[in-house]
Write a structure and sequence with these properties.
The protein has helices spanning 3-10, 24-37, 55-66, 81-85, 90-108, 129-135, 141-144, 149-158, 184-199, 224-227, 230-242; strands at residues 16-19, 41-47, 69-74, 113-115, 206-209, 214-218, 247-250. By secondary structure, the protein is of the alpha/beta class.
Length: 265
Amino acid sequence: MRSSDLIEWFRPVPACVVAFSGGLDSSVVAKAAALALGDKAVAVIASSPTSLQHEVNDARSVAEAIQIRFVAFSSTEMDDPRYVANDRERCYYCKQIRFGAIRRFATEQRIETVVDGSNADDLNDFRPGRRAQQELEIRSPLAELGITKPQVRELARLWELPNSEKPATPCLGTRLSYGLKITEERLRRVETGEEFLREFGFFPNRVRIHSDDLVRIEIPAGEIAKLVEPLNRIRIIAHFRKLGFRYVCIELQGFQSGSMNDEST
């Protein structure tokens, strides 16, 4: 894999809209688009309560470092009862709305090509949102070129992107067990809980809600002993009790990105 391969992917494209999150994958795609197309490339982020509250500002900073035009607007998946119901098609409904809004923006700008940051490894995961992507003709240069997540990180380091070491940060809705209604209150409980764990030095981490009473904490397996040290354990339990949880559980398998996907089978 060469950096030129990704840049060359964009050469035949007159102009391009990048569905942008400020995360590693979409940042590498945005950088390649900017190098190939200059001001004919634009990064567009659609944010909502399912996003981390600092996400738009972080994405704006990354776009400035990449030197790509940046546009932000609000997404409306929380207004869709299908999404809020949180069944196994949750990501399909979300991407249908988000990609649909980005596609409309591209049409208004008279830009035909819209791309996202899906990489080759994503093709092996449970991702209902890919169906919405295909329906709206959103292309994935990384996946099309067979570029994997480790290779994406190599490109980010090569281009000295400010988020080259940033771990994956999927939307907060992925932290709620299927069937548990997605509400802004629950999303903020997740965000507050994960920020609290980061302050303890547990990162990456995930706060998974399985009911209003039960929360499951994921941190790297090698850090679990530190988490259950008496003083840490007492403070962590107290914090999550204040967030409204009666049962505070630790995932003994450790941190696993996408572990809620096991419920899809």
